[in-house]
Every structure is written in C-alpha cells, then in structure tokens.
Amino acid sequence: MVQSTVKTIRESATTSAAKTPPSSCQAIHPSAQTTKNNSMAANLKAAEAVPKNCRNMYKRNSMHPSSGQQKSPENWELKWKFILENYPIMTPFAGDENTLCVRFELKDLRMLPRQYWYLGNNSFLLHGFFNYRYLILGMTKTNGNKRWFLGIPGVFQNPERVMASLFGFPEFRNEKSAPVNTGEFGYWFRYLEE
C-alpha cells in the first residue's frame, strides 16, 4: 500500500518542484502547499527524505539504543598531554613538585571527558569562576599513581567549606604551606575518576 502511494505521488509530481529534501526530520504538511501538484511533490520528497536525514541519528550518541555498546573510555594520558600543550601551565601550590596544573576557563570544561560536562552547571563552580575568572585542572602523583582533579579558586571559610562539600568539592588546598587554612586563598577541588 505504501509503495503504491509513493509510486502514485511520484508519477503525479511535477518537475518544477525543488529537488532538495527538507532539512529536518519532519514531513511537510500538505495544507501548507498552494497547489495539489506541489503538495504531492512535497509529500514525496518528505517521504523519501525522512529516512535519509534520520538514518545516522544515533552516530553522535555514545550508545545506540539497540546495540547496547558504549564507546571505549577516553585516554586520560593523551588528553592530559594535549591539555598541557595547549593551556597555560601553573604551579599554584608552593613547594609541591608532584602537582602540575593548567589554567582553565568555563568553556574549557568540554576538554574533560563527557561524564564531567555536567559540572558546567554546578552552582559552586560557577560562583568561583565568576569571582576569579578561572578554574584549574591538575594532576598529582602520589606513590607513583596519577590522579586528576578540578579546582575552584576561593578563600577558606567555614560557611564556604560547607557549601563546597554540598556541591561536590570537599577538599581545600591553600597556595602557601600555612598550618591554618582559615582566611587563606587556595583551591576547593575534587578528584576526577579515570
């Protein structure tokens, strides 16, 4: 039935109709056309265009609903090497030779693996970024293990500590090696899992 309808529409379509398919995956409504022939031609193009335009719809997603297969995890070492080559390097912690950081902006969160992109909507992160205009992404080595972290500049205060913990940045490290953190500038941070 569908093939005979398409064949009928194809036979009655005029050659004056445009040959480009619609850009979206929606069919053109016949009442939007001014003549019967244009309507039929548009319906034909819409019927043929929908599969062409929507065929690769799932290629951008990390998982196709029917396949159940996910993309392989991103390689942190390669990503970190790229970030070191393209972002300003800084050593925000005095006397720490095992920690290396880069200065990040809010738009640079896209360099993180996709699972961390949601942090761009984190209220505490936004608060810190808009106060200081930067974030840090760092890598620290402890006992031969590398761990990456995301840091937000700020001053240590108890109310700030509570808010940082609530929003997922429970740890604080000051720039200087001071015995007491209160009133010291530093970074609220969280470790990123590989």
Task: Give an overview of the whole structure.
With 194 residues, the chain is an alpha+beta fold. Helix content is 31%, strand content 20%. It is built from 5 helices and 6 strands, in the order H-H-H-E-E-H-E-E-H-E-E. The protein has helices spanning 2-12, 36-54, 76-86, 123-132, 158-166, and strands spanning 89-90, 99-104, 135-142, 145-155, 171-174, 185-192. Strands 1-2-3-4-6-5 form a 6-stranded antiparallel beta sheet. Helix 1 (2-12) crosses helix 2. It is globular, with a radius of gyration of 27 Å. Mean pLDDT is 73; it is low at 12-36 and 46-73.
List keywords for this structure.
about 190 residues, alpha+beta, 5 helices, about 30% helix
Strand content: 15-25%
Strand order of the largest sheet: 1-2-3-4-6-5
Helix-strand sequence = HHHEEHEEHEE
Mean pLDDT: 73
Biggest sheet character = 6 strands, antiparallel
* Count of alpha/pi helices: 5
Q: What class would the helix/strand composition place it in? A: alpha+beta
The helix content, as a percent range, equals 25-40%
Coarse shape: globular
First-residue to last-residue Cα separation: 54 Å
Q: Would you identify the regions where 5 or more consecutive residues have pLDDT less than 50?
A: 12-36, 46-73
Q: Count the beta strands.
A: 6
Mind telling me the C-alpha Rg?
Answer: 27 Å
